[in-house]
Amino acid sequence: MRPTEEAVWRRAVTCLILGLWVSLAVGCASPPKNTRNSCAIFEEKSGWYKAALKSQEKWGVPIDVQLAIINQESRFEHDAKPPRDRILWVIPWFRSSSAFGYGQAQDGTWDIYRKSTGKRGADRDDFDDVVDFIGWYGDVSHRKLGIAKNNAYQQYLAYHEGWNGYARKTYLKKKWLIKVARNVERTAHKYRNQLARCEDDLDKGWSLWPF
Q1: Stated pTM of the model
Q2: What proportions of the chain, in percent to the nearest 5, are helix, strand and coil?
Q3: d(CA 120, CA 103)
Q4: Helix 63-74 × helix 46-59 angle, to 10°
Q5: What span, in angstroms and rounded, lies between the C-alpha atoms of 56 and 126?
Q6: Range with the lowest mean pLDDT among 79-88, 105-114, 174-183?
Q7: pLDDT higher than threshold 60 for residue 86
Q8: What CA–CA distance (Å, rounded) separates 26 from 116?
């Protein structure tokens, strides 16, 4: 039995909608083309600015610090994971930690965040949730350790080592980590200077955002 013209039309429309949805989902998940420029990041990912600004207003951790940490941890890859260890340099084995997503948050820390904020459905591969997590983490680092919220260097050390590790100054034995934290600091400074040139335009665009 041949399908009616209406059935064929409905099938075509359904396929078109599914295709557009998949393309949109892939586009949203893919990292920005230019991760070195904060203005370019937000121009390409328009919804991200609203999320980062909301986190900044809620927790007080600047947008540039949020972005610099994400850039270091995942290069803006939504499903980033640590590489697998290998047996005899060849056979893939377990991953070195449970870190996952934009911010490479580990299972235990993410669970604490969800319980503390009531955001039970938060996901580590969702940019909105991750910038809120980084803001929350930085706020706790400020209250527990006295780290200024705009101090990208010390914020990253606490982010990497954990609050207890930072308090014990475990980072002093890791020269490589000190270098990474300094790089995060430089990246945050660069992002901050870039944002100063486009923030007004981004704010205008955000005020028109319908959600």
Answers
A1: 0.81
A2: 65, 5, 30
A3: 17
A4: 120
A5: 17
A6: 79-88
A7: no
A8: 31
